[in-house]
Amino acid sequence: xxxxxLDYVGDVQALVWGLPMxxxxxxxxxxxxxxxxxxxxxxxxxxxxLAFVRRRETGADGDISHFQALMTALAATVGTGNIAGVxxxxxxxxxxxLFWMWMTxxxxxxxxxxxxxxxxxYRETDSKGLMKGGPMYYISNAMGWKxxxxxxxxxxxxxxxxxxxxxxxxxxxxxxQSSFGVDPWITGIVLMIGTGLVLxxxxxSIGRAASLIVPTMIVLYILGGxxxxxxxxxxxxxxxxxxxxxAFTPAAAAGxxxxxxxxxxVQFGVARGIFSNESxxxxxxxxxxxxxxxxxxxxxxxxxxxxxxxxxxxxxITGFTIIGTGVWLxxxxxxxxxxxxFTAGLPGGFGGYxxxxxxVLFAYSTILGWSxxxxxxxxxxxxxxxxxxxxxxxxxxxxxxxxxxxxLVWGVSDIMNGLMAFPNLVALLFLSPxxxxxxxxxxxxxxxxxPSSGP
Length: 455
Known about the structure:
The chain is mainly alpha-helical.
């Protein structure tokens, strides 16, 4: 029965994440890029300034700063996809898959930007004075399709218990057991307690924790990867050549690598890119809605840097390390392939431990970020009184995930993510004129105030 159910879930998963969904995701990002005249390119420097220099708007409504909202969103996306996902894409699609991850990230920045504009513009205030927003609110409030807003919230709430909860704690338990000999039940108990202590304080506590954990883990991981790459700096031009060449020509079989057609490079690059940065799922808009800001565009610019950091920086570091050390030809895949690359690239066997610690921190931060997404989705469906029971149940499932076999949960979670994407993408296309209007207004205002504005 279990095998039959797994097969059924696999069939549904393949259907949901088939070519039509990938085309819809990529096509929406490309359409928004053209409509917004490449806002992600022409405003990137200003966006990075807002995120990392100014960080906060004084006197603005909201619960957390621009920086904390960005870190909360990054907490949910910078995770196993950046370590295992990139490795899986290269192992199955060859070096060219990294090129298509880049393309997905570049157009995905416009998607992420649009999600945040609408999330802030149509956010609401709850009875405690806290902000609530995201796709379910702009679908309901701007489009009037309350049934579709409810469907989005339901899919997001279910996904939170899978991809944002049990699968992450399970990955942590596996890596802590294999690398440091920690029993999974110990990991589960510690995780339940640690997650509960953070969730008690709501979004403000999550934002503070994410602002500490996320920058630390990203900087350590990037430094480790850059060290491995620069120790063999002469290989960098060759890495670029492999990535670009095999994005458009097949990669021949060699060593343990089975070879890959261009179709596989595109398929796995796009799929893993979306899995990593979540552009199109709408989830980051839920965090963006909590930001202290006077203008939807301001936070949207900050939010789009999430995809830039996730895919164009962190995933690139992983991919270059795997390709540059040559381990992509070994036949390994997933997190073990990334660990092998860092071990080969860094002296003294330090690389494997860096990947293990990175995976633990990435997975834990994902739990925190998705806990907020799930909570806001449940509150949308059941009301504010559901928040505390949800947090309790969420922490319980963190512990269960650490000691369970989760092949079925992975599949169902993937389906829920795809079902989240569809109503969100429909809404983005339907409401894109509003995003364009807000963008033109903001850019015109900055142009008029140019002498006194920031970068």
